[in-house]
Amino acid sequence: MSTTSSDYDYIIVGGGTAGVVIASRLSQYLPTSRILLLEAGPDAVNDPAVTDPFPWMELFMKGYMIDYSTTPQSYLNDRQILNPAGRLLSGSSAVNVGVWMRASSTDYALIAQKAGDKRFEFKNLVKYFKRVETFWDKDADERYHGFDGPIKTTGGRKYPLGDTILRTAENLGHQLNKEANKGDPTGLIQTTQCYNATSESSCERQHSAKVFDLSKVDVRCGSPIARILFDDNKTATGVQLVSGEVLNAKKEVIVSCGAQKTPQVLMLSGIGPSDELSKNNITHVLDSPYVGKNLFDHNGLTQFFKIKHPERGLVYPFTEKTRKPEYGQGISWEWIVFNNIPKLDLAPILASDNELAVNEGLHPHLQEKRCHFMTIPWYFPIALTPMYNPTIGHDDGKHIAFTSLHLLPLSRGTVTLRSADPSDNPVIDPKYLSTATDRFIMHRAVRATLSFISTSPLAEQLDGETPPAPEGYSGPAWPALTAESSDKEVDDRIRAFTATIAHPMGTCALGTVLDDEFRVKGVKGLRVCDASVFPEPVGAMPSLTIYALAEMCADLVAGRA
Ligand SMILES: Cc1cc2nc3c(=O)[nH]c(=O)nc-3n(C[C@H](O)[C@H](O)[C@H](O)COP(=O)(O)OP(=O)(O)OC[C@H]3O[C@@H](n4cnc5c(N)ncnc54)[C@H](O)[C@@H]3O)c2cc1C
């Protein structure tokens, strides 16, 4: 067969977090191979709106961030939940908040069990975590941290309320966990973020295409694909772009379009649940019933609390106006609490959801070191819930925010096709909080925040909650929540204001859709590697784990694993 300029050895579809890593590493490991990376969005790698981690609104306005809003969610008052993702080279790594963390080893053990391979256990992932990062603290334990990886990190700030938060957490019984990256994040941890410190008080975002070398990869931005092409033996032979152009892959196609788009690409290519394909008149390549199933996400509720003495400059976002060396580099927060719910409290709720193995204590939620939720204090009113209270701006200097974040959802939703048109977004139905266990965990998470703000010494610095007052809302005023609020008041608030922090995962999972080397079962020459591969949630912000899985995938493709 003669070779043309449209013939490649490997085509990676989706130049996001995972796709960039895989393309970069393959070009390094297989230097004689021709590698193509196709990205739907633009190349904005050095646009200050991307490299500066703070101008989020600009990311939307410039079209770098798109919204995959959900269907009406029945356990959230039928609200459609804003669901952003990056649509540019680097994908969501170019628009995210930059929290850099690993989950509990128990979470990875469950993923390994579902994937059917020990390679996904924490101890076997550590080498990939290390390969990716340059950890900011040179004295950190080298068994767990990398010091020469492409992603530089920052941490170790000192905010005026830092000690107050630390002592409040300790008064509530949370131990300071100085090494949260060795498989047990339980307790109070100091936040690390994936920024590169450019001075004592400034930093730039570390996103995948900024730091991974793509000089030996053919990168085509503005090139959304319509479908993957197969021969009669169900071997992937290349892709067709939305423009109609066909590009050939002699060895493999690797799909990394993120948890919302990867299942859509597979279904449009004829791989998916048979009924879904038939409904959209798509020619079947393979009935793969779990494509687009198993969608889960991290739900969060954010609340704003008034500071008693704003004149002391205790709270501020880290913006141009307020950059101070003692605040270090990064978004204005320094602590996160990883919380466990006691087994005796959780077991009856799990049983009410008919979850298996609860009575024997074998349910994954009842295992040691599993963290069910996070409490996140921010030194400014971060607007994770849109239109929460538009009178409070980021720079108001009078509020602190707390996010109560549910980490281990049992609810499972779907990504299905809106139509056979690749330009249409898929239908996203995460079925948020559709299990009693998830509603219970979310409730406990908010209660934990209310205890935190009512406990000394933080309590003495605060003056209650400023409740939400969304623009255009004309109903009765929302009561300020306190530790004394009724269960109904807490649940009403959860239903009305819970959002997502944009961690969708699970829609082309290892073990069901994929084998243990990321290959799509039932066809040849096709792999998937991105947030969609998780069979079970990681109870942490996921990007570091996604980077690590992409490193592993590149090793497997190149025969180095
Ligand atoms: C606002 C926000 C804040 C977040 N904060 C954090 C955080 O603080 N810490 C953390 O760890 N995680 C965070 N996350 C989550 C994390 O960033 C994502 O889970 C991760 O980046 C997803 O990586 P991915 O490779 O699966 O997909 P992405 O990085 O989203 O990449 C998918 C890419 O595929 C492209 N694409 C889609 N369809 C096509 C097509 N048909 N053809 C070609 N290309 C296509 C997209 O344009 C995109 O570039 C956040 C996410 C968001 C959106």
UniProtKB/TrEMBL annotation:
Residues the entry annotates as binding FAD: 96-99
Originating species: Clohesyomyces aquaticus
PANTHER family associated with the record: GLUCOSE-METHANOL-CHOLINE GMC OXIDOREDUCTASE (PTHR11552), GMC OXIDOREDUCTASE (AFU_ORTHOLOGUE AFUA_2G01770)-RELATED (PTHR11552:SF123)
Annotated InterPro entries: FAD/NAD-bd_sf, GMC_OxRdtase, GMC_OxRdtase_N, GMC_OxRtase_C
Cofactor requirement: FAD
Protein name (record): Glucose dehydrogenase
Species lineage: Eukaryota, Fungi, Dikarya, Ascomycota, Pezizomycotina
Domain of life of the source: Eukaryota
Family named by the database record: Belongs to the GMC oxidoreductase family.
One Pfam family in the UniProt entry: GMC_oxred_C
Key words of the record: FAD, Flavoprotein
Ranges for domain Glucose-methanol-choline oxidoreductase N-terminal: 258-272
Keyword Flavoprotein included in the entry's annotation: yes
Molecular function per GO: flavin adenine dinucleotide binding; oxidoreductase activity, acting on CH-OH group of donors
PROSITE patterns: GMC_OXRED_2
